[in-house]
Amino acid sequence: MQNNRLAVRIWDLPTRIFHWALVVCIVGAFVSVKLGGLYMDWHVRFGCTALGLIVFRLLWGFIGPRYARFAHFVRGPAAVARYLKGAAAPAGHNPLGALSVMALLLVVGFQAVSGLFTTDDIMTQGPLFGHVGEATASAMTSWHKLNEWVIIGLIALHLLAVAWYTLVRRKRLVRAIITGNVDAKDVPAGTPPAQDGLAVWLRALLLGACVTGLVLWIRSLEVMADMSFS
């Protein structure tokens, strides 16, 4: 969608909702695990929701609109090198930003999956803890704790990059991921706007329903495990 030729719609609404929902889940999971106690129930809820969001985004990377698709922005080392040497960035994620996106999806996804099998040896276990052996659960718990620092590091780099693009390059990235619109001067001439109509929403809603069903099924396995040990 053009906006008086001053902005171009790049980010569709489902992609933007995913982004901010994942932010809420990461912050919520971090705060709740530090508070501990009864807040650990919320830690599990945030983790399972983050898992659903990651699955949604991975699939949306194949069936979503142009700029959300991995085929549009994931490039090899040569493209990254050209960008670092000053080549113009395409609309959407630049080649370096694409690496950041994929890294965050990978580490947050691993954190969510590993959390399904963890235990604090007190009162909280992941939904699938009862379905694996003690050695597997112990390994997953260790990796889950270590990966927290990887996530913190990547998020810190992400925030520094956003600050650099905002203050030095004068690109309003935060506004873009809120409104979906990017300044026309920051994208190549003739860049087509992203599709954000009914067809996109129907795909997003159907995918969201399937992912929600998957997460609820995983949570139900926790109940089944509890019943088997009762």
UniProtKB/TrEMBL annotation:
Instruction: Write one Pfam family the protein is assigned to.
Output: Ni_hydr_CYTB
Q: Which residues form the Cytochrome b561 bacterial/Ni-hydrogenase domain?
A: 11-180
Q: Name one GO cellular component term.
A: plasma membrane
The highest taxon in the source lineage is Bacteria
Query: Per the UniProt record, which residue ranges are transmembrane?
Result: 20-38, 44-63, 96-117, 149-168, 200-218
Q: Keyword annotations for this protein?
A: Cell membrane, Membrane, Transmembrane, Transmembrane helix
What is one GO biological process annotated to this record? respiratory electron transport chain
> What InterPro entries does this protein map onto?
Cyt_b561_bac/Ni-Hgenase, Di-haem_cyt_TM, Hydrogenase_cytochrome
Enumerate the subcellular locations listed in this protein's record, separating them with semicolons.
Cell membrane
Any idea which GO molecular function terms this record carries? Answer: electron transfer activity; heme binding
Gene3D superfamilies registered for this protein in UniProt? Transmembrane di-heme cytochromes, Chain C
Q: Topology versus the membrane, per the UniProt entry?
A: Multi-pass membrane protein
The protein in question is named Cytochrome b561 family protein 1
Species: Achromobacter arsenitoxydans SY8
